[in-house]
Amino acid sequence: MPAKRISIGQVMMVVALAAVDLALIRVTPWGVVIYPTVWVLLGCIDFVIVWKLILRRSLRAFHYTCLIVFVIAFIIMANFLATERLHPLGLLVQWYQQLAGEDPNSISRGFFWLGEFWMASFLSLTLGCVLGLAAAWLERRRNWDIAAFFRGALVGFGIFTLLALIDEAEFGGAQLSSVRLIGRMSVLGACLILGGLMGLSRLKSSRSAQEGDDASVDGRTRPPSFGPAGCEPERRIG
Fold it and tell me: CA separation (Å) from 144 to 10, 61, 128, 131, 147?
């Protein structure tokens, strides 16, 4: 399959998108920029815009799985970090302090807090890539329409985001209790599963284009069509 060339217009659109991102980062407070949340959201949105709208390429099972798992895993880890239920750098920092013979409380809390959030984003991205590769393998080997499932799951995630905004407006910025956190995670899981099932029934992938691409890559060609007895059908003259 020949590689598609990138035109100058597409490069200019990418540069314009980067300029818009830099303008948004410039007006964002520094206390928000240093945390990975804004970078995670901007990165996912920019990837979809560049890949789908600018390069005009189709999103496959790997892309949907990686993006959704990455964002959802980061949101879950960020909530656990905010409530101090998760410390991804805790064991690493304790191991380093034991080797260096330092006081366990010698590291700045702000630096440690910031590092934990960036570590959570790295772990979420790693999990998304691994599950994305597994989803692509299953779709190729088992012929499962995983892309359609995650298209619906993306719709379910949008519904969950709307419900979360309503919850924030109702209860304000109070710290999440254990009951509210478990409730949110349960609603998130239900929205993703129901949205995925809706995607399987309503948002199915177009197999013809994908199978044509795979056939061109593998170098396979379809044999000519013959009649039921294995002979070429009769040609009518006139």
Answer: 33, 10, 19, 15, 9
How many CB atoms within 10 Å of residue 151?
A: 22
Distance separating alpha carbons of residues 116 and 93, to the nearest angstrom: 11
Q: For tokens 């007006």, what's the residue?
A: 27
Residue partners of 45: CB distance under 8 A and separation at least 6: none
Q: Rg of the chain over CA atoms, in angstroms?
A: 24
Q: Which DSSP state fits 60? A: -
Q: Pick from 212, 119, 199, 217: which is nearest to 159 by CA?
A: 199
Q: Phi and psi of 222, rounded to 5°?
A: -75, 140
Closest by CA to 46, choosing from 79, 24, 78, is: 24
Q: Quick one: 163 exposed, middle or buried, by C-beta within 10 A (0-12, 13-18, 19+)?
A: middle
Tokens for 41?
Answer: 């959201």
User: Is the pLDDT score of 195 beyond 60?
Assistant: yes
Neighbouring residues of 103: CB distance < 8 A, sequence distance ≥ 6: 97
Greatest Cα pair distance in the chain? 97
Percent of the chain with pLDDT over 90: 10
- Minimal CA–CA distance to 156: which of 207, 206, 202? 202
What pTM was estimated for this model as a whole?
0.67
